[in-house]
Write a structure and sequence with these properties.
single chain; alpha/beta; Rossmann fold; 3-stranded parallel sheet; 8 strands; globular
């Protein structure tokens, strides 16, 4: 696994044609009174790096910088967040494609991946880490009496 931000121009030029780009997308918004605003960024970046490391023997992967902005208008009431409009975020995702770490981005990421696959001769996927890891979450009983993916470390239905 390699990190895009740590590679120089020549390394990227050589590696890109046979590598899988792994661009994580997060959000900068509230996570209750106990977690930092960067929780979605920290979590999805960790997931993307670990996934790329596990693929390393079979597929060379390059993890890009994490996009720290999301579609977070539903968090306006909590203040101190960054959010892009649905239209702007969708257009941006169509240029990138990604692994998601914020619930508000999920549907837009799915639409962007579908539309890119229809427009271009590429293989593309979009996934939210809680969907990719669903089996393990169920085995850990994270779903019992809770709504997944939770928020702020709490998945209890409200």
């Amino acid at each position: 696994m390699r990190l895009f931000a740590e590679m120089n121009r020549e390394e990227l030029h050589t590696a890109a044609p046979q590598s899988l780009a792994v661009p994580p997308i997060g959000a900068t918004e509230q996570h209750g009174p106990h977690l930092p605003r960067g929780t979605d960024v920290f979590a999805v970046e960790t997931v993307a790096r670990e996934a790329a490391a596990q693929l390393a023997d079979d597929v060379p992967a390059i993890v890009t910088p994490t996009l720290p902005f999301g579609s977070s208008h539903h968090h306006f009431v909590f203040g101190a967040k960054f959010s892009l409009s649905t239209e702007t975020y969708y257009r941006m995702l169509c240029e990138l494609i990604l692994i998601n770490g914020h619930g508000g981005n999920h549907e837009l990421a799915q639409l962007a991946a579908r539309d890119m696959a229809l427009r271009h001769p590429v293989r593309v996927a979009a996934g939210s880490y809680w969907n990719v890891d669903w089996k393990e979450l169920v085995e850990a009983e994270a779903h019992r009496g809770r709504r997944l993916p939770g928020h702020a470390g709490d998945s209890k239905a409200r």
